[in-house]
Specification:
This protein is an alpha+beta fold. The protein has two domains: 96 residues, 2-Layer Sandwich (Double Stranded RNA Binding Domain), CATH 3.30.160; 79 residues, Sigma 54 modulation/S30EA ribosomal protein, C-terminal domain (SHC Adaptor Protein), CATH 3.30.505.50. It has three helices and nine strands; from the N terminus they run E-H-E-E-E-H-E-E-H-E-E-E. Helix 1 packs parallel to helix 2 and helix 2 runs antiparallel to helix 3.
């Protein structure tokens, strides 16, 4: 597994990097056969240290955890515990509800855009209704079943997930509703 351990305006020493690699590596290897890379970022928020960890698995899952504490090692240990809990739940759900995936998730390229926020100025009417593109990035859309998409959205803590439905290759969306349930958008072409 590749590690990227960094600090935002914090010096990360060799001892902490070794601790991160040992603990995170052991926690992830319990529940994931082929983790690809891990990104660990330490920062300060007032008097607390904050640790944000993201682990990418070969199945296409991205698990992330965030924790804070007064000591930097305690912040990482708490974050590592949260990551281990997410991966344990993921593994249990795979065993209980979903078939084992023999092949890694297929990813499709797509463009992702960041649009400028519109200034709500009552006096001035905008010249055009076209938004201003601030940034353009490349993103990946996984090919998943609906159950796997819901599971990945919940584990990642994301409000929604865009995916390609394995059943019919159409682009679908699952999202967290205000009432706590999960919504699923499955557009059908007109006949």
């Amino acid at each position: 597994m590749r590690y990227q351990i960094s600090g935002k305006q914090i010096d990360i020493g060799d001892a902490l990097q070794t601790h991160v690699k040992e603990c995170l590596g052991s926690a992830v290897s319990k529940y994931a056969e082929r983790p690809t890379d891990a990104n660990v970022i330490f920062s300060r928020s007032g008097h607390e240290y904050v640790c944000e960890t993201t682990v990418h698995l070969s199945t296409g899952l991205t698990a992330s955890a965030k924790a804070s504490a007064h000591e930097i090692y305690a912040a990482f240990d708490s974050c590592c515990d949260k990551m281990e809990k997410q991966l344990r739940r993921y593994k249990r759900r795979l065993k209980d509800h979903h078939k084992e995936r023999s092949q890694p998730v297929e990813l499709f390229g797509a463009s992702s855009y960041i649009l400028a926020a519109s200034e709500h100025n009552d006096a001035a009417e905008p010249e055009t209704l076209q938004p201003i593109i601030v940034a353009e990035m490349e993103t990946k859309i996984p090919s998943l079943s609906v159950g796997e998409a819901v599971m990945q959205m919940e584990i990642a803590g994301a409000p929604l997930l865009v995916f390609r439905n394995e059943g019919h290759d159409g682009v679908n969306v699952v999202y967290r509703r205000d009432d706590g349930n999960v919504g699923w958008i499955d557009p059908r072409p007109e006949k």
